[in-house]
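Quick one: structure for this chain?
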Amino acid sequence: MKHIVLSGFSGGMGLATAKKFATNGYFVYGLDIKEPSETIENTKFIKTNVRDMSSIQEAYEEIKKDEIEIDAIISMAGIYDINSLIEINEEDFIRIFDINVFSIYRMNKVFLPLLKQKGKVILVSSELAPLDPLPFTGLYGITKSTIEKYAYSLRMELQLLGYQVVVIRPGAVNTSLLNVSTTKIEKFSNGTQLYKYNANKFMDITNSVESKKIPPEKVANLAYKICDKKKPKYVYKLNRNRLLLLLNMMPQRFQNWVIKKILLSKHK
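Got it. Here's what it folds into:
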């Protein structure tokens, strides 16, 4: 039997990925701070705080007792936020980096000794990573851009040791992470002192980006196919948003003008 270590085990993409692998010849070690909503055969949940290196180290020691090698390290832990870069407090600013970026570094650093030769490190980015950020979701986009730079550098290094690094770059995925958008927008609209715009205007932008959602199973299926490939690509793209792509083809000055027109216009 093959084995993977998966962070974000209890989330939408993580749970779908665990099911896909566990029903197709893999044993899944699932790491998350939250208990999973269901029990899945051929999986082992290990309560882990990915913000804490010692917690991840404890998970490593527990898995190491099974005397196995792992075929892939898959990082799917992540959070989403809507806020302004000026008003966000330092704790929340650090938290999103800690979970979206630093947890990946911790996972790979700790579990690499268990990764078999030609094993894979799979990271989940976002279609926003290579694009110019939208207002108030900028910090999320910045963390995803950072992941991709990290992944590219890691690929350069780990190829020398016989490992492969692969990035999955999905657009909107129908998970609880995406479903918090409305609540986050309302919280931001009620709390901001600098940007007293109608929340519905920003909701228009968000809805256009999230209008076409794919089920988390599509991400899971892709992760499984990547593990099965001898020579996977560096980046795999899913569900790209045409409006975002079109906007990013325009000069940045024009992009700024469009967003300003939308957010400053009166809501009817």
